[in-house]
Amino acid sequence: MTSTSRVMAVTGANKGIGFEVARRLLVDNPDATVLVAARSEERGKAAVQKLDTPRARFISLDMADAASITAFAARVAADYGRLDVLVANAGMLGMDVADTRASIAVNYTGNVRLARAVAPLLAPGSRFVFVSSRLGSLAALPGAALRATLTAPDLTVDALSRVMDAAADAADAGGAPALAAAGWDPNPYAVSKVGLTTLVRLLGRDEDRPGVWYHAVCPGLTDTGGNADAIAGLPGIVPLAQGADGVVWATRLGAEGGVNGAFWAEGRRVDYADQADMDGWKANVPAPELVTA
Ligand SMILES: NC(=O)c1ccc[n+]([C@@H]2O[C@H](COP(=O)([O-])OP(=O)(O)OC[C@H]3O[C@@H](n4cnc5c(N)ncnc54)[C@H](OP(=O)(O)O)[C@@H]3O)[C@@H](O)[C@H]2O)c1
Fold this sequence. Notes:
By secondary structure, the chain is of the alpha/beta class. The chain has a single domain (7-278), classed as NAD(P)-binding Rossmann-like Domain (Rossmann fold). 44% of the residues lie in helices and 14% in strands. The chain is built from 10 helices and 10 strands. It has helices spanning 16-28, 41-51, 66-79, 100-118, 144-151, 157-181, 188-206, 228-231, 240-250, 275-278, and strands at 7-11, 33-38, 56-60, 85-88, 127-131, 213-218, 222-223, 238-239, 262-265, 268-270. The strands form 2 sheets. It has an 8-stranded mixed beta sheet with strand order 3-2-1-4-5-6-9-10, with helices on both faces. A two-stranded parallel ribbon has the order 7-8. The protein starts with 6 loop residues before the first strand and ends in a 15-residue tail after the last helix. The relative contact order is 0.14. NADP nicotinamide-adenine-dinucleotide phosphate binds next to helix 1. One of its GO terms (molecular function) is oxidoreductase activity. Keywords: NADP, Oxidoreductase.
């Protein structure tokens, strides 16, 4: 069946930025159904209850489980037949090198699978927004050969996935020194987000349906309430509403900048291969007025 009203989905929507994005999408789009995707039925249904509208619906999705991603797409296809906005927000903040494989699985591989699974549901007007991070800076990668591989104009998603798999293998086999030897900054979160932002570049480059847009966005260092200890003392912390605002804003971005697959932060396009541009948040750049109407 094809729904006549718009359908939007947010992954990892049971808390943090994802929950606030789902709440904002419901407020800003009174015609839309918003699917609250979560790996835990209990936490997902609790979030839906908090959103307190029949337009919010729980849907199961574990980004670390290929079968769950396939089932998610099949369920959206069967129940709605369309997907107008997908915010791929679910993410794992792995900071220990032992977390590298799991971080890549959730933050990178899960999103490759999700993009492939939902591609048939996207139509002109659809926006697929991936929540990435300024920490995933291509310019900060120590390895020149790795940088060249990842910036190659003809890089394919399969080739990128092989690079990410090799990073997971290196971390498992030799920890941080092996990752560094392969050219990475051995921070698993950064490794996975470099992969994600690069994936978005390739999805945008390869999309041949006019009006289907892929964006990567950094919400900024966002105080979600649950990460107070992790971010205490860091510069440029923004409140939850502002972090979510930047993500919601990206769901309305179309041809701005003329590039499909770009990386956005603080309401502007940022070059993730240019460290000066990526360092902007460290200077605590005030967020510009975002268009939220
Ligand atoms: N907060 C920041 O400063 C900041 C800055 C830059 C980028 N980001 C990005 O913004 C996104 C949201 O961050 P947040 O701060 O709101 O994080 P958060 O509060 O930790 O929320 C993360 C969400 O992802 C879900 N998740 C984790 N692993 C999953 C899996 N395998 N399958 C499905 N869902 C999974 C979590 O579900 P459970 O509750 O079940 O664990 C939770 O709903 C992430 O992608 C993060 O990398 C955040």
